[in-house]
Amino acid sequence: MDTSLGRIRLSEQIEEAILGAITSGEYPAGSKLPSERALMEMFDVGRPSVKEALLMLERKGFVRLKRGIAPIVAEPTPQGAMDVIGDMVRAMLPHATRRSEFYDLRIMLETAAVMEAARTCSDDYIEALKASHAACCNATGKANEFRDADQEFHSCLISTQNNSVLTALHGALIDWGLYNPEQGPEVEKIHARVIAQHEAILTAICDRDPAKASDALRSHLLTRKDAKTQDKDTDT
Predict the structure, then answer these.
(1) How far apart are CA 25 and CA 19, in angstroms?
(2) How sure is the predictor about 230, in pLDDT bands with cuts at 50, 70 and 90?
(3) CA-CA distance, 24 to 36, in Å (whole number)?
(4) Distances (CA, A) of 20 to 2, 4, 17, 76, 84
(5) Does pLDDT of 97 surpass 60?
């Protein structure tokens, strides 16, 4: 590990040096970094600079910190990357344009997924999708249960790709708030319309029709995007 320091903040230099050692393989995932005291001696700095550097690395998902134990190098994962940027994304979502852009990203991801599903999905996948659809039908009129079933249906659409990055990004978009359940006094009618839209997506996939699946998915998600935009415009 290079322990020479330049002119930027000490903590940032220490973070950069440790990160370089991690990414180079000097400290592989699961291994322990030198203790705080050892790092202080290696860099010839005080504890605050070392502690701040380690906290920055923890926030970025590169190390795990636990009192009394040397820092442990974490395994980089797609989900870890989503966790790192989550707070920044959430801070952008109140801005109507940014929210619209992130929602468009969700539409693009799901559109590509259903088109590929219509081309290549297995019978087992179709059965799983049918089960998710049935769960939505059974939850009609129950807001919380229907929300969970609806999210599972969309997660199932993504799962056919067996792509951990895609799964993590799509899941993060939902967690960040890019899920806009339609609200209103006639909840059963709203749920019935959503179920009909799900049915159209499912039918297109079963028919092995990528274009039809894409159109059905986009129509479904754009319905709520437009409603959300109107809600935001009204609020502002």
Answers:
(1) 10
(2) very low
(3) 21
(4) 9, 13, 5, 14, 18
(5) yes
- Residue 64: its H or E element: strand 63-66
3-state secondary structure of 3: coil
- CA distances to 106, 134, 137, 209, 215 from 109, in Å: 5, 23, 24, 17, 14
Q: Which residues lie across from 32 on neighbouring strands?
A: 72
Q: Name the residue among 213, 216, 195 with its Cα closest to residue 204.
A: 213
**Residue 8 DSSP code:** S
Q: Stretch 9-15: mean pLDDT, rounded?
A: 92
Which pLDDT score, from 0 to 100, does residue 211 have? 97
Report the distance separating Cα 219 and Cα 113, nearest Å. 15
Which residues lie below 8 Å from residue 108, measured CB to CB, with a gap of 6+?
none
Query: In Å, how far are 9, 21, 37, 82 from 54, measured between CA atoms?
Result: 14, 13, 12, 20
Could you give the CA distance from residue 142 to residue 203 in angstroms, rounded to a whole number?
A: 25
Q: Does 41 score more than 90 pLDDT?
A: yes
Mean pLDDT score across all residues of the chain: 90
Cβ atoms of residues 76 and 201 within 8 Å: no
Indicate the range of 22-36, 114-128, 145-159, 167-181 predicted with least confidence.
167-181
- Which among 119, 108, 125, 216 is positioned nearest to 166, based on CA atoms? 108
Looking at residue 189, its amino acid is K
pTM of the model: 0.78
C-alpha span between 139 and 145 (Å, rounded): 6
Amino acid at 27: Y
